[in-house]
Specification:
The chain is α+β, with helices and mostly antiparallel strands and 308 residues long. It has two domains: 231 residues; 66 residues, no CATH class. It has eleven helices and four strands. Helix 1 packs across helix 6 and helix 2 packs parallel to helix 6.
């Protein structure tokens, strides 16, 4: 990264970590080359060829599947780097005091670390999400690449940027609290990963599901759009009571035949339509950014308490 227009602690921060910072555009460039090459090799899904018989399509689909899972670890890596090499290592070795001899305050030194990490993380995550989308649009809807699948969901929207900023904030806080490079990296990675897991488990509770029903003997394919995310299904009685989907099978050994005394009339399915993608992304992004703001506020307060 160029340091020509940077001054003071910002110049020093970029200079210290220039190799790691250069890894971000290098990764984005490598990903773009791979995606463009695989898209060129893969058949157009509207060309009439069967996609699954096309080796290029298969290679692109496999690459995008692993890329989506890999991007899940990006916020963990960001947080671990900020906590360890950027903050804890300097506090552990005492080299941070050198910055204070260059007419810099502890707050300015710490702020430079956070701002540089945040700027590179936002730009890098946004570019990587764009590169992922470039390849994903060709294979969307295939196995493990549905819009709501773990990895694909995070890699295609602003939530990836938000989680990277959370990694920066947690790294800045934990790095000061732990002051041991490897331990700070491990703790920050763990906390960031736990947040990803918890919010990932809760995200489909943020919006209400939609419900469709068809007669018991009707076509179950009509219950929801093919692009939707299935959440639950079962049986409906004439009174509106919901029963498990296998309630009739337990007595008749057939899913579409129910005893008369059960009074079952319809099947129902609860689902999230694809239109819920962006509202869910924006709500989750707001929650993650709020957590990042809290962690960052605590980190700057800690600087003020410890160093004045």
């Amino acid at each position: 990264m160029s340091t020509l227009t940077l001054k003071g602690p910002y110049w020093l921060t970029v200079r210290q970590h220039r190799r790691a910072l250069w890894a971000v555009p290098a990764l984005a460039a490598a990903g773009l080359v791979a995606v463009v090459a695989l898209r060129s090799w893969a058949a157009d899904p509207h060309s009439g060829r069967i996609p699954y018989s096309d080796h290029g399509f298969g290679a692109l689909r496999l690459f995008m599947e692993y890329a989506g899972k890999g991007l899940l670890f990006l916020p963990l890596l960001v947080g671990a780097f900020v906590a360890g090499p950027m903050i804890a290592r300097e506090l552990e070795s005492g080299t941070w005091r050198l910055a204070l001899t260059q007419s810099s305050t502890p707050k300015a030194w710490f702020g430079a670390k956070v701002l540089v990490a945040a700027a590179v993380s936002v730009a890098g995550a946004a570019v990587l999400a764009g590169v992922f989308r470039l390849g994903w649009v060709r294979v969307t809807g295939t196995y493990a690449l549905h819009w709501a699948d773990r990895g694909t969901y995070e890699a295609t929207g602003p939530v990836l940027v938000a989680y990277c900023l959370l990694g920066v904030a947690l790294g800045a806080l934990v790095g000061q609290l732990v002051r041991r490079t490897l331990v700070a990296m491990a703790v920050t990675g763990l906390l960031t990963g736990l947040t990803l897991l918890v919010l990932g488990a809760l995200r489909w509770s943020l919006l209400s599901t939609e419900t469709n029903s068809v007669p018991l003997a009707g076509n179950p394919v009509k219950l929801m759009p093919r692009s939707a995310l299935w959440m639950d299904t079962g049986l409906l009685t004439a009174s509106g009571e919901r029963l498990p989907r296998d309630a009739c099978f337990e007595r008749t050994e057939k899913f579409d035949v129910c005893p008369a005394d059960m009074n079952v009339t319809d099947r129902y399915t609860e689902f999230h339509p694809v239109s819920h993608y962006w509202p869910t992304q924006l709500i989750e992004t707001s929650l993650v950014l709020a957590l990042a703001a809290i962690a960052l506020y605590a980190a700057f307060r800690l600087v003020r308490v410890r160093h004045g």
